[in-house]
Design a protein that fits this description.
The complex is a heterotrimer of chains A (513), B (363) and C (177). With 513 residues, chain A is an alpha/beta fold. Chain A contains 16 helices and 17 strands. In chain A, the strands form four sheets. Chain A has a six-stranded mixed beta sheet with strand order 1-14-13-17-15-16. In chain A, strands 2-8-7-4 form a four-stranded antiparallel beta sheet, with no helix packed on it. Chain A has a four-stranded parallel beta sheet with strand order 11-10-9-12, with helices on both faces. Classes of the chains: A alpha/beta (513), B mainly alpha (363), C mainly alpha (177).
Chain lengths: 513, 363, 177
């Protein structure tokens, strides 16, 4: 099919040969699982189990909260050891609410787990609801709840489903292996998603460095004339969904918009596989394929791991480190995040664990910018990274925003190409985070102001009420006195009728009391 | 609200095998053939001047870094000072006294580079600032060119004699000559026609190979072209600046030559003479002082070409590359401000793209 | 000589007149500036700036008597906004030296005296007579007014800890860019 050109990009050494030949194997049952309640974009799930409770595989552990959220299920049968705080699978090293599960070794599915005979007979809403209930999120790393994307058809005129099998990040091979080994299941998942979206055009896009996956998917999709396989040139960041859609359709997603704005929904093959499992068998998302690789790993592998397995367990299974790694990363080397320790658990969005050697990372001390323009040429978004970084460095974040900071997708092409080894991406991540923090601070300030005004108004109202009460009493007093005086005067005028003078005095004293 | 993290570095964790020292080193490698040719052609004095200029550049850089309180070693090792000294030496008359090179290096490094904030911060090309300053301050020394006297040839000065030429107090009248550009300029000024002047001084082969009087590293058009193509192949520079600059000069020269062949020289003459090739491949392409976008580079280079031709043809100097590049350097911030790539998902004015058949369902 | 004096005098007078007219017609309404500043300030009357409330502080900032960096709850963002509003350059280095703090009530020491929540400018403390009080983290501005009045010293000012949603990469320390 006809492909369109995208701007910029880089050609990193893909190093996929390290793990591409390794078939997916299941990791042995770990001793303990730490299942974080936030494995997705959106609101954290709220726990639905108690300490000590026994759960079966697939039982609900935590319920999603709100529209953009996802539930979390038990990856295996066992006993809940606690609901507490545990280091997150995140560069910050912060802890998050986490459920600790001790597997009983039986790996017994819950009784209520049940698939659908014919998913295509279901209403599209019902498909999306089942996907939501299974806790499926975008498994390419963005972890956006998949069901929300399947429901986009309500607000947008969707005509195309794109399956993003580009896997443009170097090293990673999990999608490649999944498409090679489980092509039928992936295609089935894709067809179910297409049914939910109501689209007639499906494009499975795979980079040319994965010819086996291209072939396997083409065979599996042969009976469905709606599905086309797009063979993409190998270039980073081909897997950025906006750039992938541009490559396939020639259209750019409007700034600050979604691909749905131009009628396209993009999903990952692993997500399609999870949808297949959720609909056909009723399995919630409790495991995923992870590539454990890098020059420092003794035996690179593709592993099917239960969510909540510690990174250390994966490393142990791969023979540990061959040499001391320079960097331990979750995800690919371009957009992955450094892991704070090996005891953090695997989550729905983690597609790789990389242990890279010094030679692989090729880090150097940053030098000043020589304005060579390599970053400008590399940027797939048409930005001028060197200027954005210069503005950020001197604290002019507004200036950086004016230059397009918010259009930056943090793909890392600029920093990859920079001969000065300037940490451009970190500048932009910092600037984006700081801008968001300022936004929150501003919001809080507005809220503070509202609260303070409310309080002032309330205080004023109370004072006013008090004043009015006081005034009222004064008036009453005055009225009483007046009445008294009048009565007195009347009494005096009448004179000598003593029986009548007693009463007003008594009533006045009653008022007083 | 950021906190200290165990791994305080964000990605990417892969990097293209590039660095600033590598960039500078490759540029020097590309300059090497033309430099060696210059040294062989103009003899020991050229080598002495070359060494003196580069040494002065290194010393000036080290001293400036120390005064500025910056780490001396990593910045000195980036190679930018050596390259500046090297480029400056290439543009000097080969038999100029050592202090011309030394003063030039001081001007380039201290005044044109470090005062602006060091590497990457300078507005003007340091080597060209130095060359122009020298040309204006020491016009005699800067225009006393010598005819080629290849090493070990009959007329070539020996090692000691050369020391006297470069480091002596006396000038060297005996070997003075003029560059082709200078000679043609003078003769034209006296009312002679080109058909009478050119055959004497300019041959198409000698012009390309560089066996003519001129600055130390500017004469060999072929070797400079080879170095430039090597840099483009290595992706240190892109083709946009050299091709546009040479193209502009060639077009202007062709048009004027067609209008009046007796007073305006042809495009070939302009391309191989003087500093055109050195300027197009090594001076105008200076990363720091040229625009960062491709379109900006094309505008910049067209401006350079235009100014070179105008200065050579109608202004007071026979050669205009240095002036042209400096004038366009001054325009670089302006070009970079106005010429930016179109941002993904936005139109040229920066507004989000809108499609007529918008997919959003109006509800 | 005379001509020169006359022409210069005329020039001076004319320009002076122009300046006079300009100052009359292009005058910056100081009360308007005060209002604009007051609109930006939090309005919680917390008094951390040393002025009795946000109104007087706004006046002081607008007139230049107080620096734009005076408001601790507003932090760096507010200082920048004020600086751009008033067209001054502010030294922001001193701002936000301490991380944002919020009050925390130790429930085992709290006696439910209600003193703190009466003082709270943003109603961030919940409670009633003889009931243990607690703080709404979202509404607390860290003004420390409650901290000062608590008779049992059960209120502690704690730094606001980042979450996965609020954490972001620190600015690179590199010399470069």
């Amino acid at each position: 099919m006809k492909l369109f050109k995208i701007r910029g990009g880089v050609h990193p050494d893909d190093r996929k040969q390290l793990a591409a030949g390794q078939a997916i194997e299941s990791l042995p049952m770990p001793a303990l699982l730490h299942i974080p309640l936030q494995q997705h974009i959106g609101a954290p799930a709220s726990p639905a189990v108690r300490r000590g409770q026994r759960v079966a595989k697939g039982d609900l552990l935590a319920q999603g909260q709100g529209v953009i959220s996802a539930p979390v299920h038990a990856p295996t049968s066992g006993r809940i050891m606690g609901v507490g705080s545990y280091p997150a699978h995140h560069a910050s090293g912060l802890s998050v609410p986490t459920i600790t599960l001790q597997p009983d070794g039986e790996d017994r599915w819950a009784d209520h787990i049940q698939g659908v005979e014919d998913p295509f007979a279901l209403e599209p809403e019902e498909v999306a609801a089942r996907v939501a209930k299974a806790g499926v999120v975008g498994m390419g790393g963005a972890t956006f709840p998949a069901a929300v994307k399947l429901n986009l058809r309500k607000r947008y005129r969707i005509h195309t489903l794109v399956i993003n099998g580009a896997e443009c990040e170097p090293y990673l091979t999990c999608d490649d292996r999944l498409m090679r080994e489980r092509a039928d299941s992936v295609i089935d998942g894709i067809r179910i998603m297409a049914h939910a979206l109501g689209v007639e055009r499906i494009i499975v896009a795979i980079e040319n460095n994965k010819p086996e996956a291209q072939a396997a998917m083409a065979v599996a999709a042969a009976d469905d004339s709606r599905i086309r396989i797009a063979r993409l040139p190998t270039r980073y960041p081909m897997g950025s969904e906006k750039h992938l859609v541009q490559t396939l359709t020639g259209r750019e997603t409007p700034a600050r918009g979604l691909t749905a704005d131009i009628g396209v929904v993009v999903h990952n093959p692993a997500t399609a596989f999870a949808v297949h499992e959720a609909l056909r068998f009723g399995y919630p998302l409790v495991s995923r394929v992870v590539t454990v690789t890098g020059g420092a790993i003794a035996q690179p592998r593709n592993l099917r791991v239960l969510l909540g397995t510690k990174v250390q367990d994966l490393l142990d299974h791969c023979g540990g480190f061959r040499v001391d790694p320079e960097r331990l990363i979750s995800g690919g080397p371009m957009m992955g995040q450094p892991l704070p320790s090996t005891r953090v658990p695997m989550v729905k969005g983690s597609n790789g664990v990389l242990a890279l050697t010094v030679e692989e990372t090729n880090e150097r001390e940053p030098m000043p910018c020589i304005r060579c323009g390599s970053c400008v040429q590399a940027c797939p978004c048409g930005l001028v990274p060197l200027e954005m970084a210069a503005h950020t460095r001197v604290g002019d974040l507004e200036g950086a925003v004016g230059l397009g900071l918010m259009d930056c997708i943090s793909c890392g092409s600029c920093a990859y190409a920079c001969p000065g080894h300037i940490p451009l991406v970190q500048f932009f991540n910092y600037a984006k985070g700081e801008m968001a923090a300022r936004g929150r601070a501003k919001q809080k300030q507005a809220e503070t102001k509202r609260l303070a005004e409310q309080r002032t108004a309330r205080m004023e109202a109370i004072k006013q009420a008090k004043r009015e009460a006081m005034a009222k009493r004064k008036r009453e007093m005055a009225a009483k006195k007046k009445a008294e005086a009048e009565k007195k005067a009347a009494a005096e005028a009448q004179g000598g009728q003593e029986g009548q003078t007693d009463r007003p005095v008594r009533s006045a004293s009653e008022t007083e009391a | 609200m950021s906190i200290e993290t165990p791994a305080a570095k964000a990605g990417p964790f892969a990097h293209e095998p590039v660095s600033i020292p590598r960039t500078m080193g490759l540029v020097m490698l590309a300059l090497l053939p033309a430099t060696l040719f210059g040294i062989v052609q103009f003899g020991w004095p050229a080598l002495y001047l070359f060494v003196a200029t580069i040494l002065a550049a290194i010393l000036a850089e080290a001293a400036s870094l120390r005064v500025a309180g910056k780490p001396v070693r990593p910045y000195l090792m980036d190679g930018s000072a050596i390259l500046t000294g090297w480029l400056l030496a290439m543009t000097l008359p080969p038999w100029a006294p050592w202090w011309i090179g030394a003063v030039g290096s001081l001007l380039a490094i201290v005044v044109a580079k470090q005062v602006f904030g060091g590497i990457g911060q300078n507005l003007f090309n340091p080597a060209m600032v130095a060359r122009v300053a020298l040309l204006i301050t020491f016009p005699l020394e800067m225009t006393s060119f010598t005819v080629p006297t290849p090493l070990f040839s009959a007329h070539a000065p020996g090692l000691l004699e050369s020391l006297a030429i470069t480091f002596g107090v006396q000038g060297f009248d005996a070997f003075s000559g003029a560059t082709v550009l200078g000679h043609v300029r003078t003769e034209l000024g006296q009312g002679h026609a080109l058909s009478a002047i050119l055959p004497e001084v300019f041959g198409s082969v000698s012009g390309a190979v560089g066996t003519v009087a001129g600055s130390m590293g500017e004469t060999s058009a072929l070797l400079l072209l080879g170095g430039g193509i090597f840099l483009i192949y290595k992706r240190i520079i892109s083709w946009h600046i050299p091709v546009t600059m040479m193209g502009t000069i060639a077009v202007l020269a062709t048009v004027m030559h067609l209008v009046d062949p007796e007073h305006y020289t042809g495009p070939y003459y302009h391309l191989v003479s003087g500093a055109t090739l050195l300027g197009a491949f090594f001076i105008a392409t200076d990363l720091v002082t040229s625009p960062v976008t491709r379109l900006g580079q094309i505008i910049f280079a067209a401006g350079c070409g235009l100014l070179v031709y105008v200065i050579r043809t109608w202004a007071g100097y026979p050669e205009g590359v240095a002036f042209a590049v400096l004038l366009m350097n001054a325009c670089t911030p302006l070009i970079d401000h106005y010429v930016k790539p179109r941002v993904y998902g936005r139109d040229r004015r920066g507004q989000p793209i809108e499609y007529a058949d918008d997919a959003e369902v109006q509800s | 000589m005379l001509a020169a004096i006359a022409s210069l005098t005329t020039l001076g007078l004319a320009l002076g007149l122009l300046l006079g007219i300009a100052s009359r017609y292009l005058k910056v309404e100081s009360s308007a500036a005060t209002e604009q500043v007051a609109a930006l300030l939090p309005g919680s009357q917390c008094g951390q700036c040393g002025y009795p409330g946000c109104g007087p502080a706004a006046e002081a900032i607008a007139s230049g008597a107080a620096p734009v960096t005076i408001c601790p709850p507003g932090g760096r963002a507010l200082a920048e906004e004020l600086a751009s509003l008033l067209g001054v350059t502010a030294d922001l280095s001193g701002v936000e030296d301490k991380p944002p703090m919020i009050a925390h009530i130790h429930e085992n020491i709290c006696i439910g005296c209600t003193k703190c929540f009466k003082r709270c400018p943003t109603d961030a403390i919940m409670g009633a007579n003889n009931m243990i009080h607690s703080v709404f983290a979202d509404a607390c501005i860290g003004c420390e007014l409650c901290f000062d009045v608590c008779p049992t010293e059960c209120i502690e000012m704690r730094p606001l800890t980042p979450t996965l949603q609020t954490w972001f990469w620190p600015k690179p320390e590199a010399v470069a860019a």
